[in-house]
Amino acid sequence: MSELLTALADKLGAKIAKKYRVPAETARDMVLVHWQQKQDLLKLVAESSTEKAVARTRIYKDAERDVTRKVYYELRRYQAEQSVDPMIDELRQSQEGDAREKARLALVQNHVSTAERMSHLDEFWTQIKTYWGEPSSLLDLGCGLLPLVYPYADHKLDRYLALDRSTDSINTIQAFKEVYGKDMLETHEWKITDGWDVIGDQSYIFDVALMLKFVPVVARQEPESLNILGQVPARKVIITGCKTAMVKQQDISRRERASILAFAEEQGLDLLDEFETPDEVGFVFQRNI
Q1: What are the 10-residue block averages of pLDDT along the chain, 289 residues in total?
Q2: 3-state class of 121 per DSSP?
Q3: Contact 20, 60 (CB under 8 A)
Q4: Average predicted confidence (pLDDT) for the chain
Q5: What predicted TM-score, i.e. pTM, was given to this entire model?
Q6: Under a CB-based contact definition with an 8 Å cutoff, are residues 196 and 209 in contact?
């Protein structure tokens, strides 16, 4: 590979890393992968002797703009590119002990939203436990892979219903349930517009519902579904939002807070308390049902 092309990618990777939540080396590698498909850019670099000579051309400027946009959209993908099917198979085939734990953690780290909590997982659950008391039933909406890191030994539940629209997440949770023998755990592929039939007995009320990093996303992408969320069959509702944008190096805590509080006011939820974790702003609400 051309040293000049690599030098240009290094410089752009560092520029992207300042703007988005990605290591400079990762950004550089992503840039190089895309640039290998740009025949006009490769020809330009081969015929040029300096970075400056390349950087001032329209071909380079277009290539830089195009690859920066592609990196942004790739980073927005919530689930990592790696297929989870082989990882699920590894979990199912693993023997109890270190091998099984390694397989579980590999799946967790492959899910961006869940992996973000791993560096402060104990603190996260300590905060949550402070506000939810001793629930016997838990409804987890947009659960991701949170059921794989739930502290089952400390927080005993009779029923844990985990719902998500991702087939990969549901398949992973089901495998985890079977391998680890978590009989209290139920999981279903679910969209908000499916409503609450999934819970079975329509008179059933959960002690706590979790909507972690969920409500602001719904408010932006499908606001017509917020009224369904507002009818969540739970006495207490814990809602969080992100402090930092998933891709851009940008503080969005004020925006997320405003979105959650607007939802709560519209749905008649009573605010009980607020809390923060290293990467989330959180609210505890009471639903009078």
Answers
A1: 88 86 82 90 92 93 90 63 85 92 92 84 87 91 96 90 96 97 97 95 95 94 95 97 73 93 97 92 93
A2: helix
A3: no
A4: 90
A5: 0.75
A6: no
Other CB atoms within 10 Å distance of the CB of residue 249 = 12
DSSP 20: B
Name the phi and psi angles at 219, rounded to 5.
-60, -35
Q: Token pair 């659950």 is at which residue?
A: 125
Residue 160, both tokens = 């844990």
Spell out the domains of the chain, with CATH numbers in brackets: 3-75 (no CATH), 118-286 (3.40.50.150)
| Cross-strand bridge partners of residue 271 | 285
Indicate the helix (H) or strand (E) that contains 219. Answer: helix 215-221
Please give the structure tokens belonging to residue 62: 């277009």
Q: Which of 88, 192, 207, 79 is nearest to 139 (CA)?
A: 207
Say what the alpha-carbon torsion angle 21, 25, 28, 33 is, to the nearest 10 degrees.
Answer: -100
How far apart, in Å, are the Cα atoms of 84 and each of 108, 151, 163, 173?
Answer: 10, 23, 18, 11
Q: What is the pLDDT of residues 17-67, one digit of tens each?
A: 887 767 888 888 889 888 988 999 999 999 998 999 999 999 999 999 999
Q: Which two tokens stand for residue 168?
A: 């990969």
Cα–Cα dist 185/45, whole Å: 56
